[in-house]
Amino acid sequence: MLVIGLTGGIGSGKSEVARLLAAYGAEVIDADLMARRAVEPGTDAHAAIVNRFGVKVLAADRTLDRQKMADVAFHDPAALADLNAITHPAVGALIASRMGEVAASEGGGGTEKVVVLEIPLLTAATRERYPMEAVVVVDAPDELRLSRLVMSRKMNILDARARMAAQIGREERLGLADFVVDNSGDREALAIEVDRAWEWIGTLRGQQPGERPASRTGFS
Predict the structure, then answer these.
(1) Which domain covers residue 143, as residue numbers?
(2) Is residue 31 helix, strand or coil?
(3) Where are the alpha helices (DSSP H) in 106-141?
(4) Which of 22, 134, 167, 209 gives 20 to 30 Å between its CA and that of 2?
(5) CA–CA separation, 195 vs 24, rounded Å?
(6) DSSP 8-state class, residue 12
(7) Distance of alpha carbon 53 from its chain centroid, rounded?
(8) How far apart are the first and last CA of the chain?
């Protein structure tokens, strides 16, 4: 199993890149989806969130209202830190379980599966937590990402800026990259970038375990 971390700032288009990689045959594990499952009613994380933040962050059906939670956490660093302390271990456990299932499904056929671990908030510490062979970063200028959030996702501009500010900066994110997918163009340009990324991922299968790949950008 070859595990590739995939990240990018909010509005960068990482989910579209994940979709395109899945079309090539990659097994995508979406950390954001795992985060939703980790806080479903009845889970320990859900109970801990209600204990810390109160029922005001819940919807009528007692599921976590992500917008209400964001309104609290992304404008208060202490609240965000508390939320992360509750959710990160729960999400990590779900990801580890899913990776174990994928590894078990490989069998003895000799075909190594490519697992794309899509993590919006991937940091250097996160990279150490999971057995990633490489990290692909989807990159776009901050103002373009902001425009996408406001125009496509219909976010309030202040909320969009707060969410961007809560993530690591663009330069720090690029510093984690072994391969950069440039998503400052249109969909056709992105498809070409992802094709290059998949070709590069294919070169990693001959590496020794733990060996860091030679860096390359998608727009070199």
Answers:
(1) 2-217
(2) helix
(3) 124-129
(4) 167
(5) 9
(6) S
(7) 25
(8) 28
74 touches 67 (CB < 8 A): no
Mind listing the pLDDT tens digit for each residue in 102-123?
A: 888 876 655 678 999 999 888 8
Mean pLDDT is lowest, of 27-36, 144-153, 177-186, 209-218, for 209-218
Which pLDDT value is given to residue 123?
Answer: 86
Task: Please name the residue that has the structure tokens 């729960």.
Answer: 90
Alpha carbon separation from 176 to 5, 128, 200, 216 (Å, rounded) = 10, 11, 17, 12
Position 73, amino acid = A
Q: How confident is the model at residue 125 (pLDDT cuts 50, 70, 90)?
A: confident
Task: For residue range 152-197, list pLDDT tens digits in order.
Answer: 888 989 989 988 998 888 999 999 999 999 999 999 999 999 999 9
β-bridge pairing 2-8 and 179-182: unpaired
Q: Give the CATH number, domain containing residue 99.
A: 3.40.50.300
Mean pLDDT, rounded, for 50-65: 96
DSSP letter for 65, please.
Answer: -
Closest by CA position to 190, among listed 17, 4, 6, 26: 17
Residues 6+ apart with CB under 8 A from 99: 1, 3, 29, 115, 117, 130
Q: Is 80 exposed, middle or buried (0-12, 13-18, 19+ CB in 10 A)?
A: middle
